[in-house]
Structures are given as C-alpha cells and as structure tokens.
Amino acid sequence: MDCFEVTGGARLQGRVRVTGAKNSALKLMAAALLAPGRSTIHEVPDILDVTIMSEVLRRLGCGVAYERTPGSGGGGRLTIDVPDKPSTETDYDLVRRMRASISVLGPLVARCGSARVALPGGDAIGSRGLDMHISGLERLGATIISEHGFLIATAPRLTGTSIWLDFPSVGATENLVMAAVLAQGTTVVDNAAREPEIVDLCRMLVAMGARIEGAGTSTITVEGVDSMSPVEYTTVPDRIVAGTWAIGAVMTRGDVVIERGVAEHLTVALDKLTDSGATVEALPDGIRVAMDGRPRCVDVVTLPFPGFPTDLQPMAVALAAVSTGTALITENVFEGRFMFVNELVRLGADVRIDGHHAVVRGRERFSSAPVLATDIRAGAGLVLAGLCSDGVTEVQEVHHVDRGYPDFVDQLRGLGADVRRTQRPD
Ligand code: UD1
C-alpha cells in the first residue's frame, strides 16, 4: 500500500507545468470511439484513470498506445486505433474502478446502435445518479433497460430532440452530446454544463466533423451528421491541478508560477485567493500565485462552472483551517464530499459540519498524524495540509491521488517540498 510521507514546513516555490485535464482526457478518449481509424490525443496525463480508460477502449477492440512527453509535467501522447465494428460491452471490474467509464455509453449507442455498460454503483463522494444520462438517451430514442447490473441501451438510429437537464451535470451533458453528434436531426441540450472540459470535448467533436453550437453556454445545439473522422487533438490544461498548486502556494506562503494554468478557468477560485491576501497574476502562459504572511479565511460556495469547483473544495477547507478567522464552506454538488473532513480533524483542524455546510475556524498549523486519502481531491487536500503541519504526516491510500495527479510527488519536490512515496505492508 503506497503512502506519501509529507514533512511540513517548506514553502512551495518555483515553476510547475500543468498537463491536460483528467476530466477532459477521459471523455476525449471515449469520443474517439465515434470514428473508425487512428485518433491522437496530446497532453494526456499519465495517471491511473487514463490507464483504466485505455483498458476500457482495448476491451472494446481498440488499439491504444501511450508515450510520455519529457518535460510536460506528466503528460503524453495517446493514440487510439478504433476498429470499424467496436465491441459494445464494458464490464463491472472497469466501471467499478472508474465511474467515468460510463462515458462510452453515448458514443457506443450512437455509433454501434447498442451498448452494454455495467452500472457504476456508489461512490465515496455521494450517490451520483445516472438518471439524466438515461432519460436523455431515451429522449434521443434509445431503449434502456437495467439487467443483472448492466445498463443495456439499444437504438438502430438516434433521433434529434430537445433535452432539459434538471441539473447541469457534466457527465450527462457529455454523454448526450456524444450521442447526439451521430443522431438524425437536431438536438438541443438545455441547462447544459458549461465546464471548460465540455468546451474541450465539443471542440474535438467539431474537429472530427460534428456540428455543435453553444458549447460553454447553457444551451448546446447539435446537428447530427452521418459519420465522423479520426482526429489529432490537444487536451485542455487541468484547472483542478492548477488550482491545487495555487491553493498550495497560499497555504505554504510560497510563490509559484503555474505554467499553462488558465486564469479564466479558475476565476472564482483565484478571486477567493486574492481575498485571502494572496497576489494572483495572470501571465501570458500561466498564473503566478504568491503569499506573504498568514492567509485570511474566506467563505466558499461550490457550484457548477463558472462557480467555485467542487473538486477544489477539500483544498479550500484545508486552506481555511490554517487561515485567520472563520470560514463557511458550502458544498452544493456532491452530498458526501465532506467525508474527508474527519481526516483533516485528525490533523487538528477545527471544522464543524452541518448538512452541506462546514464551519472552519483557522489555526496556525496542523499537527502531523497518519491520515487516509478518501478520494482523489481529498488526498491532494491532505497532502497540502501535511505541508503545513509540524512534523511528518503520512497520507495513506494514495492510489486515489494517483488517479488524478501525474508525478505529484516529483512536482511537489520540484517546488521545494519534502515529500516521499513509501510503502506500508497491507
Ligand atoms: C464530473 C467530474 C468530477 C466533478 C464533477 C462536477 C469527471 C470524470 N468527473 O463528475 O470530478 O466533481 O463533474 O464538476 O469528469 N447527478 C444526478 N444524475 C445524473 C447525473 C448527475 O443526480 O444523471 C448528480 C450527481 O450525483 C452530482 C451532481 O449531479 O450530485 C453533479 O454530477 P456531474 O456533474 O454529473 O458530475 P460527474 O460528471 O459525475
């Protein structure tokens, strides 16, 4: 079982390069299924989730090859050879390991007329339903049944329609747009998610021959086409990794240039850091975040983009816990996302949870202790907390962190942190 040993005290200082976004790359990989032939995706992060999605694609009959790009901050080039007739089944062993495997559902049913994808089940950050994926595909004309733990979708040819999402779900928007690109006629998705990863996916789909308008707004219009072509495409930089470095710089009172960080993808988060007392500069190809002295507590409310990202909420709680004053952190996207707070409390944080609110009273430093990473972002938040602790914090179960942060330890060390990967017996 791999752990990180994080020795507190260092300021994060220097430059760090951010490669492509996990939450985009996984969907771009699924989108490649829409066209037979070889697609190439650049700036794909070298993380466990990409390995799992590569396995999903291999089992569907694709050839997948990955090559690291030196000096890219943990990114690389992925080639996907999609057969003329992919197979259409994705097993539970893969979906269970990574829920984003469900994003092959839309492309498969659109291109092959059927798909059999295991149901993902629960998740450590909430129940995460699929109702909007299912009802949207049904409106497009698919018949969907749930049987023996699988979702089975069939549709000889999908037909364009109008779909209103109850909530701007990222995954449902992506699945429905990927299905609609090969449907007959026009599909309008209203109350669509507006995340930069949606814009990225739509850009790749357009480069493959799709006709899409409104990506990045709440109304996405897709005019179906008969076929798509393979593509060469570069993944958008990871705003959550960039945001993690930004918050880490503030927590450790450091000075970090985040190369390829896109300030417009993090407007609310960076404004919060400015309010906490940090210097934030948008550079031509990145963001600089510097902090002198102890940060001030700021309230945070997570919301769909362009709101404060739920994926940075654990880092926001960790930041507030070492700031002056009291912060109210409100989680609106995932009901179970405060679970990791118990771990932060083990480090001496003063946090009280009431429903989807956390009241955080700042303390000068954390007090080191062994803690468990409960999901990707909670793990990253605990590592940042460890950097502000008075000794050596052992973060356990870091396989979660490996799912989302390429070269995390090396990058932290490059910024001057004292962090090591170690192993404990199971
Ligand atoms: C994606 C991201 C995740 C991020 C989240 C919100 C990936 C791989 N993951 O997750 O990191 O935190 O967006 O920005 O891209 N919901 C339903 N029914 C549905 C779909 C969603 O009830 O059919 C609910 C979920 O339970 C959750 C909320 O809607 O409470 C948001 O989920 P969604 O935006 O779909 O997140 P994901 O796409 O799963």
TrEMBL record:
Keywords: Cell cycle, Cell division, Cell shape, Cell wall biogenesis/degradation, Cytoplasm, Peptidoglycan synthesis, Transferase. Residues 6-412 form the Enolpyruvate transferase domain. It catalyses: phosphoenolpyruvate + UDP-N-acetyl-alpha-D-glucosamine = UDP-N-acetyl-3-O-(1-carboxyvinyl)-alpha-D-glucosamine + phosphate. SUPFAM superfamilies: EPT/RTPC-like. This is UDP-N-acetylglucosamine 1-carboxyvinyltransferase. Belongs to the EPSP synthase family. MurA subfamily. Phosphoenolpyruvate binds at K22, N23. Pathway: Cell wall biogenesis; peptidoglycan biosynthesis. CDD domains: UdpNAET. UDP-N-acetyl-alpha-D-glucosamine binds at R99, D311, V333. Its main location: cytoplasm. PANTHER family: UDP-N-ACETYLGLUCOSAMINE 1-CARBOXYVINYLTRANSFERASE. One of its GO terms (biological process) is peptidoglycan biosynthetic process. The active site is at D123. It is found in: Cytoplasm. InterPro entries: Enolpyruvate_Tfrase_dom, Enolpyruvate_Tfrase_sf, MurA_subfamily, RNA3'P_cycl/enolpyr_Trfase_a/b, UDP_GlcNAc_COvinyl_MurA. Cell wall formation. Adds enolpyruvyl to UDP-N-acetylglucosamine.
